[in-house]
Amino acid sequence: MARDVAIVSFAQTPSTHGVTETESQLLFPVIAEAIERSGIPRRDIGFTCSGSADYLAGASFAFVGNLEATGAWPPISESHVEMDGAWALYEAWVRLQHGDVDTALVFSSGISSRGDMREVLCLQNDPYYLMPLWADHVSLAALQARALLDTGKVTEADLAEVAARSRRAATGNPMAQVAGDVTAEAMSAEPYVVAPLRAGDCPPVSDAAAAMVLVAGDRAREVCERPAWIRGIDHRIEPHYPGVRDLTTSRSTRLAAEHVGVGDAPVEVAELSATFSHEELILRDALDLAGDVEVNPSGGALAANPLMVTGLIRIGEAFRQIHEHGRTRTLGHATSGPCLQQNLVCVLEGDR
Amino acid sequence: MAEAPQEEGGPVRFMKQHIALDYKVHVSPLAARFGEQLRGGQIVGSRCPRCGLVYVPTRAFCPMCTVAMGERDEAPLPDRGTVTSFTILTPIQYHGQKEREDYALASILIDGADGTVGQQRLSDIPLDKIRMGMRVEAVWAPEDERAGDPGDRGYGFGNALRGWRPTGEPDVAADEFAEHVL
Ligand SMILES: [Zn+2]
Predict the structure, then answer these.
(1) DSSP character for B177?
(2) Inter-residue long-range contacts of B98-102, CB under 8 Å, 24+ positions, other chains counted
(3) Alpha-helical regions (H) of chain B
(4) Min Cα–Cα distance to chain A from B21, Å
(5) Which of A31, A280, B60, B75 meets the CB 3.0–4.6 Å disulfide criterion with A274?
């Protein structure tokens, strides 16, 4: 029986391209805002976990400097994942299950604009077959999209529909980077980046930071008017080499969804880290989402894709749907690796 | 490094893989201002308005108090200090290595600052005569050679300083800088 843990606050910077601040400077006000909104004094936070990647910063041990933004003196209990902040959230949730601490700070940051992501992300491939080919993540995603189209279940027009809907939804999100009142026809008219993916099917290169505070048990209700309880959180991994997977489905997402009971009750909103438009179609299918589920009202990862932050923002947006908009059951999803290799699913519930 | 032995027609045991990633890092407004002041020959730190600790180079916030710091918290500092720790480096000849002779890098506690500046080059002294507690002064690059870009990571003085050399003052006793060694 898992211990009840809730998200009580969330803060994020707008996603932009080419920030001049350092990562710790980006994080400093965001962490302060999340702590301020939580009502938990900074010194009362029992555990801190962060997510970032030194390959984005272009400097080894860059993540250590980010800790300065937490005020880590006197010494704090702290950990880091070289992953999206959604996995830092997972570690913090596990840490709270131990029962000896009741509060946790989770934060993540990513300045993707400093490097060429199509080069940097090559290095996540295996070093023998794919890395020497410089098989970049957009090209691999295009192979996945092609495989999906070849099943005959979806068409390029479906991809354009996802791309257009994401941009339209993002017009209501001041934190988003790419927004506009565009049609699927307009998206279909854009040139291919890597066929069959067009510009609108691919995410922007984004810089951002985000932070959230978790509280266990009744204290969550004391400090927060409407906390979002983590009803289930699970992550699963598929083989590293994309050539040995069926790229047209996401078995890891399906498995994670089963473990957290996504289908046990209706989901009102799903925030999915679909960083390419075809990924949304694969994820909807793997999650068995009903037709009336609102997907990515924030605009999703196609509207802003700060690597290492995108997944944490999805869960933060799912939290806001409960905390600010009165929903009762939402879902946040994060992904990592090429072609949806790793997937994390988090179900949140508000008090009824 | 010598070429790894590999038999003609035998199984592949090694493969070369040269990887280079290019990054374009913007100089943060804070670091740009620090660099501008260095170009003018002035080292500047930040004094926390809450705890009073002086950091050098300047910082956007005090990491101890999580209080924002700005221009009003700037603390001009002298170009003198004390070696609190040092390392003698023997350069290995890897690709891109430009150093050929042994050299010394030191942590310098600038007078009036509470934190050291790391990896500072020492000059004008035989390597076996360097010691902790030694008093040093900055060796400035000629004004027209101060590229003055200290980068955005706040670790050093870019091209403005060539390094630090002994002043000849008496050494500082160890207990006076024991809290500022790293
Ligand atoms: Zn302070």
Answers:
(1) H
(2) B102/B127
(3) 29-39, 174-177
(4) 7
(5) A280
- Residues 59-118 on B with a CB inside 8 Å of A are 60-61, 63-66, 68
Residue B1 is predicted with a pLDDT of 41
Per-residue pLDDT, A206: 98
E-only strand ranges, chain B:
43-47, 54-55, 61-62, 67-68, 74-77, 80-89, 103-110, 117-121, 135-140, 161-166
Q: Which amino acid is at B13?
A: R
The pLDDT score that the predictor gives to residue B144 is: 86
Which value does ipTM take for this structure?
0.89
Residue B142 pLDDT: 92
> Shortest CA distance to A214 belongs to which of A27, A72, A86?
A86
The C-alpha of A304 sits at a distance from chain B's nearest C-alpha, in angstroms, of 20
Q: Which member of A69, A120, A132 has the closest CB to residue B21?
A: A120
Residue of B nearest to A132 (CA): B17
* B53 vs A: CB within 8 A: no
User: Which band of pLDDT confidence, cut at 50, 70 and 90, is reported for residue B6?
Assistant: low
Q: Which amino acid, B165?
A: R
Q: Looking at the predicted structure, is the pLDDT value of residue B83 above 60? A: yes
Contact A319, A300 (CB under 8 A): no
Residues of chain A with C-beta less than 8 angstroms from the C-beta of B119: none
The sheet carrying B161-166 orders its strands as B117-121, B103-110, B80-89, B135-140, B161-166
Which stretches in chain A have pLDDT values below 70?
none
Task: For residue range A254-312, list pLDDT tens digits in order.
Answer: 999 999 999 999 999 999 999 999 999 999 999 999 999 999 999 999 999 999 999 99
Residues listed for chain A:
352
Q: Are B84 and B109 in contact (CB under 8 A)?
A: yes
A106-142 pLDDT tens trace: 999 999 999 999 999 999 999 888 988 999 999 999 9
Measure in Å the smallest separation between the Cα of A336 and chain B Cα atoms: 21
Please give the Cα distance from A204 to A20 (Å, whole number): 18
